[in-house]
Amino acid sequence: MxxxxxxxxxxxxxxxxxxxxxxxxxxxxxxxxxASFCVGAASISCQSTGRLHMPGEPATCSDDLKAIERLHxxxxxxxxxxxxxxxxxLWAEDGVMLRPGSPPIIGKEEIGKVLRKWNPNPDEVEVVxxxxxxxxxxxxxxxxxxxxxYDSAWRAKGEDQPQTITGNILRVLRRxxxxxxxxxxxxxxxxxxxx
Length: 195
Prior knowledge:
Strand order of the largest sheet: 1-2-3-6-7-8-9-4-5
Distance between the termini: 24 Å
Order of helices and strands: EEEHHEEHEEEE
Shape: globular
Radius of gyration: 17 Å
Number of helices: 3
Number of strands: 9
CATH architecture: Roll
Strand content: 35-45%
Number of domains: 1
Largest sheet: 9 strands, mixed
């Protein structure tokens, strides 16, 4: 995922819950999962789940948000390059993909088969645009939930007019033992398809 801009955040503490709100009206990140997506942050919150936090120190939440941002950037890079192995590396071993009109795809190995089947040859297709505008990112312990809308475009090399698709996306991320965040569940739908 390519970073177009970074949302500055402020930390608010309220009854054991830490909220991170954008200082700018809209932070913008771009990203891609599967075919093509992109990311922007609007509302972010973290909830304490028994971990010790020093008063006034949002380090855990801040570190988690930075790690999720790294996941978004890696996602965008892999999508832009149509790099299936790099996309697959962003999934948890027990990940579940819920795509429209299909039964759940369970496990990283099965997700890899689907990604390899879907992804076109990068010599034949170029990703023109992958934008996800996340409306919310919530971190609760070792889990994070993010939802938003996407707007993607790609075209066959040599063609002028790109194909576009828009829709909604919901992802559940899980923090790994090494502190990285990976996609544990993902579901999306499409609004419309145009040429």
